[in-house]
């Protein structure tokens, strides 16, 4: 959005809100197929490779059909074009990056993270620095969201009890 000089206005935020539901669809389809392959007994790497390959064309087709609906709105002229261009580009960019993540990042993360679910024992070696740093960031997000939740509770509860 930044590279195409799209600001966060009502229409682009509406495009983001519209795309949020569609963003996770690709990743869910790919991840569910990887889990299904893994539960059939394939190795972690083979399940990630075969599961993604099996549903890859369907995910691409589904995403392209949605993009085919929104992207032509970019070429509308006049007032309507000015209104809907930001929304169309936002939805298109979000779906393209969702597709890229679903076909690259999700299989890679599934092949790395699925081992603990299926292994009986655990790895005896300690977690690496990258895993520890990601776990730290996730914990910090949890603390921040907990603090925000308590702050909202305090702000909303105190005026109603008085």
What would you give as the CATH superfamily of the largest domain?
Answer: Multidrug efflux transporter AcrB transmembrane domain
Mean pLDDT: 82
Q: Tell me the major beta sheet.
A: none
Alpha carbon gyration radius? 21 Å
Q: Unreliable stretches, pLDDT < 50, 5 or more residues?
A: none
Q: So what's the overall shape?
A: flat
Name of the CATH class of the largest domain: Mainly Alpha
CATH topology of the largest domain: Multidrug efflux transporter AcrB transmembrane fold
| Broad structural category | mainly alpha
Question: What is the CATH architecture descriptor of the largest domain?
Answer: Up-down Bundle
Please report the distance between the alpha carbons of the first and last residues: 45 Å
Number of helices: 5
Helix content: over 70%
Percent of sequence in beta strands: under 5%
The number of distinct β-strands equals: 0
- Total domain count: 2
Helix-strand pattern: HHHHH
